Amino acid sequence: MESYSREFKIQKNDIGNAGTVASLTKRELKRRGLTRDFVKTVTIGIYEAEINVVIHSYGGYCVVKINDDIVDVIFQDIGPGIECIDSALTPGFSTASHYAIENGFGAGMGLPNIQSVSDEMKLTSSKEGTRLHMKFNIDGDCYES
Amino acid sequence: MKVKDILSSNTFELITDKSGLNNKIIGIFASDLLSHVMGNASESNILITVLSNINVLGVASLLDLSCVIFSHNIKVNDEIVNKANELNIPLLKTKLPTVETILILSKMGI
Ligand SMILES: Nc1ncnc2c1ncn2[C@@H]1O[C@H](COP(=O)(O)OP(=O)(O)O)[C@@H](O)[C@H]1O
Ligand SMILES: [Mg+2]
Prior knowledge:
- By secondary structure, chain A is of the alpha+beta class.
- Helices cover 34% and strands 28% of the residues of chain A.
- Chain A is built from five helices and five strands, in the order βααββαααββ.
- Chain A is globular and about 45 Å long.
- Chain B is of the alpha/beta class.
- Chain B has a single domain (3-107), classed as HprK N-terminal domain-like (Udp-n-acetylmuramoylalanyl-d-glutamate--2,6- Diaminopimelate Ligase, Chain: A, domain 1, 3-Layer(aba) Sandwich), CATH 3.40.1390.
- Helix content of chain B is 37%, strand content 15%.
- The radius of gyration of chain B is 12 Å and the shape is globular.
- Classes of the chains: A alpha+beta, B alpha/beta.
- Chain A binds chain B through residues 15-16, 18-19, 22-23, 26, 36, 40, 43-44, 47-48, 51, 102-110, 113, and chain B through 32-36, 38-39, 43, 51, 53-56, 58-59, 61-63.
């Protein structure tokens, strides 16, 4: 199938629109005939990453690329960065604000969830911003028969 | 079992319009933390929660949950109800606490 590439802007604290990237990517994956399980896996990863940019960063963007072999997703924001990546990856660790917690976020399970659903995840961060690159491999089993 | 089948008891009040009532129900998930719902709930689950905000709908829609039940008589504002109508997600309310809600649903055979 033709390859797909789409870029999304993500605004700081825009909780009402959080989930847009996940939702539109889900639609595209379904259109391509991928299984519910595969679609769910990707959706979980994107949703958590998207929420993190909304609640923890000053804003950023996301690029989603899909071809027959892979779903490749990059989230890049403009800071303030993650102080200690090892802590951030620990299940339950969270620095979520009161505002985020009131909205149901801040379980500290986002990054661990992303790690477990993706085939590859690279997280790099500095004060200038955080970049999260995740890959989901598509093989024959991922298509609805 | 469908969403409309659990409405016949007086336990639940439907606060959205009539769309989605034919959604199939398979199983129950209860949590007030969205990452837990996102990571653990399955398609066609009922979600029981006291978290009444717009992101619950995002998660319900992404996971294709059958409906959301707000327990403990929690307040649900119009913005949420309108958005749920748009997304065709049935929203139900109950005075019961979460655990009793689960017990009743389980008695119904879910
Ligand atoms: N894009 C980001 N920018 C800055 N900090 C982040 C970002 N993503 C994650 N973090 C940090 O990593 C922590 C753990 O993230 P996560 O596992 O998703 O849990 P939660 O979002 O529930 O706090 C966050 O609390 C935050 O301190
Ligand atoms: Mg998170």
